[in-house]
Design brief:
The protein has helices at about 5-20, 75-90, 105-110, 110-120, 140-145, 150-160, 175-180, 225-235, 295-325, 330-340, 340-345, 350-355; strands at about 30-40, 50-60, 65-75, 90-95, 100-105, 130-135, 190-195, 200-215, 215-220, 240-245, 250-265, 270-285, 360-370. The protein is an alpha/beta fold.
């Protein structure tokens, strides 16, 4: 057989191989419903898991995507997921799932059992944003009244993605959270979400931070505390920090650029941790017409006040994590591991105790750059 015939034969074999190949687990699109988000609660009496699922509904005639809320139960989370199929009559696909909401009760009891399925099942996304339902059933977040074309899980996902512009909560996906609670030198933190009743409608509100020690929630940081935490956790924070100059007199500083430097020092076999923040901020708002903070002396006064406020805020979080929660919310142990690996090997198994006794200092340097379109205060005429 000459070379030309061999080439033709090989091409024919390849073509026929491709033609007869198929997906053994192929499923028609009409046989599937897509999950947008999930919320997990637990029945205190029976111990059964209650799964609330937001399922996407596509309509060809109206050309819009809506959603419906399905509630199911099971002895395990996986059984509860399969129970949804019984109610919708179709297979479920979680490749579009955006959020995974866990009740505060489950978080305090131990969150690993409800994460195990997400960690193992290849069909469930482990990059969903995870949130803890604050003081509510997790189901209440998805069950709130909504507009016809509103998809609550997608709105929650948008809130998570925009966290760097808010500062009052962070964003954590399931995979990152599992990694944090499984690693030494860092603890898990998760944003919290609650139902807020307005005059005309019920909304959700993301804010604050759930603090974990191992896989159990041991406390929380309020929104203002979280703003100081996010200065060190968020990669590119762009939110606004209000600085109280005196009673009921605030100035808004908008973060433009934040450089973080954490240095671990060795002092006679013991470690010290120094945290330094260099921040470029814009003076974006003043709620008083009496003081012009654009003058050099007043700008210096604002600079010192802002630096002290932020230093105190960060130090307060560190002390709270050391003394009250006894867990490393900032992940400083990871920095020790990177900079002092030999010392880390000696203390890593007892890090929470060592951390509580480790001197930690914070230094903030602020550069006030701009003040918007004008340098002048609004001065109403008499």
């Amino acid at each position: 057989m000459n070379i030309k015939k061999r080439f033709i034969l090989i091409c024919m074999i390849i073509i026929f191989s491709i033609s007869f190949c198929g997906c053994w687990d192929y499923i028609e699109m009409n046989d599937v419903k897509y999950i947008a988000g999930m919320a997990i609660d637990k029945d205190n009496k029976t111990g059964r898991y209650i799964l609330t699922t937001e399922v996407l509904e596509a309509s060809v005639s109206s050309q819009i995507i809506t959603s419906s809320i399905i509630e199911s139960q099971g002895e395990t989370v996986h059984e509860a997921v399969r129970d949804v199929i019984k109610k919708v009559g179709q297979m479920l696909q979680a490749s579009h799932a955006k959020v995974f909401i866990v009740s505060e009760n489950i978080a305090k009891e131990g969150i690993v059992p409800v994460l195990d399925l997400v960690n193992r099942d290849a069909e469930i996304r482990n990059d969903m944003w995870i949130m803890i339902a604050k003081s509510n059933r997790a189901a209440d977040i998805l069950n709130k009244k909504k507009d016809e074309d509103e998809i609550i899980s997608f709105d929650l996902s948008d809130s998570a993605r925009n966290s760097r512009f808010i500062g009052k909560y962070g964003k954590v996906d399931v995979l990152e959270f599992i990694d944090n609670i499984s690693s030494k030198g860092i603890s898990g933190i998760v944003p919290m979400v609650k139902v807020v009743k307005g005059k005309k409608r019920i909304n959700f509100e993301v804010g604050g931070t759930a603090i974990f020690k191992s896989d159990k929630m041991v406390g929380q940081l309020e929104e203002k505390e979280t703003m100081f935490l996010q200065l060190l956790k968020e990669k590119k924070p762009k939110y606004v920090i209000p600085i109280e100059m005196d009673e009921n007199n605030y100035v808004s500083l908008e973060l433009s650029k934040v450089k973080k430097k954490i240095k671990v020092k060795d002092k006679n076999g013991k470690i010290d941790i120094n945290i330094k923040l260099c921040m470029d901020v814009d003076l974006s708002e003043m709620d008083t017409k009496e003081v012009n903070f654009d003058s050099e002396d007043k700008k210096q006064q604002l600079k010192l006040k802002a630096e002290k406020t932020i230093e105190n805020g960060i130090n307060s979080i560190i002390e709270k994590s050391k003394n009250q929660y006894k867990t490393d919310v900032l992940g400083l142990g990871k920095i020790v591991e990177q900079q002092r690996p030999k010392q880390w090997e000696k203390i890593c198994n007892d890090w929470d105790k060592v951390y509580s006794q480790t001197p930690t200092k914070t230094k903030v340097n602020i550069n006030i750059r701009y003040s918007g379109l004008t340098n002048k205060n609004i001065t109403p005429k008499n």
